[in-house]
Amino acid sequence: MIDREKVIKALSDFSKFRICLSNLIPWAEIDDALALLKEQPDIVRCKDCEHCFVEGFVHERNVCELHPEIENPSDDWFCADGERRCT
């Protein structure tokens, strides 16, 4: 899994070397990639989503309140509607 914030930080740190590498790297492309990453929503996996819960005692299964048509989504599953559970 890619952590968006780590990628943004890595690209931002890398861009500090522009003066040294100004003729080697197409900086406009790095700036475009940073802007695009910052616009993207965070991915919230089912295991961390407030709409997903475990049901059952003997045969446990995950249940999504928003998408009941998805039977027993895995912990790594995600959708566009996920909201991070408050801790």
Uncertain spans, ≥5 residues at pLDDT below 50?
none
Helix content: 25-40%
Strand order of the largest sheet: 1-2
Number of helices: 3
Secondary-structure element sequence?
HHHEE
Largest sheet: 2 strands, antiparallel
Q: N-to-C terminal Cα separation, in Å?
A: 21 Å
Class by alpha and beta content: alpha+beta
Please tell me what the overall shape is.
Answer: elongated
* Percentage of residues in DSSP E strands: 5-15%
Question: How many discrete domains?
Answer: 2
Any idea what the radius of gyration is? 19 Å
Number of strands: 2
Summed over residues and divided by their number, the pLDDT gives a mean of 78
Task: Give a structural overview.
The protein has 3 helices and 2 strands; from the N terminus they run αααββ. With 87 residues, it is α+β, with helices and mostly antiparallel strands. The radius of gyration is 19 Å and the shape is elongated.
Question: Brief description of this entry?
Answer:
With 87 residues, this protein is of the alpha+beta class. It has helices spanning 4-14, 18-21, 27-39, and strands spanning 52-55, 61-64.
